[in-house]
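Much of the work behind modern protein science is quiet bookkeeping, done one molecule at a time. The fold becomes a row of whole numbers, each drawn from a learned catalogue of backbone shapes. The protein below has been through that process, and both of its lines are reproduced in full.
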Amino acid sequence: MFKLKNTCVLNFFMFVCLLLGSMSLLAGGHEGAASHEHKAQSPHTLSASVTLATEYLYRGVSQTNGDPAIQGSFDYAHSSGFYIGVWASSLEFNSNVTNEASLELNYYAGYTFDYYGLSYDVGYLYYMYTGQNVDASSPEVDFSEIYASATKTFDMKYSPTASLGVAWSPDFGGGYDDGVYVNGSLSVALPMGISPYFSAGWQDLSTGKGATGIDYFHYAVGASADVGPITLDLSWNDADNVCANANDCDGVMFSVSSMF
């Protein structure tokens, strides 16, 4: 059973339900408009997603103390490549402060484009942890990043896809100075909508006020499968030299998601 432990998470659940209902009405309106024979395709795209996961892992580290999470997103994209959106997740975070954060909100905007056979994505991401009244002795947890990635899908059997990305934060949350994150992934597309994958990342955080610098490596091995409008994902995850409790850094994660 998923644990809705507080009002903030319950409000988020209600928000996701209202969002999906609105998207369904919006999709119906677009479908009716598209029935006109000479209607030009709109350059604007709206989409939303909802995910139920056994755990929320951020770069290999649990943000829910091993408990389940509910997540959702709402995005706008233009045919030029520009996009903007918001993503949210329930969490159990920073329980040692007066009011622990119970909801993470990510606001982002970026631009995608193709060049010399590669697909690029560059953008800005802001992490906000709501519901938390940070103690005077505790550092700020909200932070921002600039990110960029390049992806290549090879024209061969099973369409292998490789991706490499980097993100940089000038003032990483939790009292660190700048943070650098490098990540990569490899996946293939098998019959019946099954896609095995491997992903890995390296996080480096410089020493900041009230904290010591750390760096660690994490990876995930798993597979996703499309079943109608639903995507199932099962993976094994592990991170090294970062968690005091090993259970927060390794284990199996399963999620069910859908995009509208």
Remarks:
- Confidence is low (pLDDT under 50) at residues 1-11, 13-38.
- The first strand starts at residue 44 and ends at 53.
- The helical segments are 7-34.
- The chain has one helix and 14 strands.
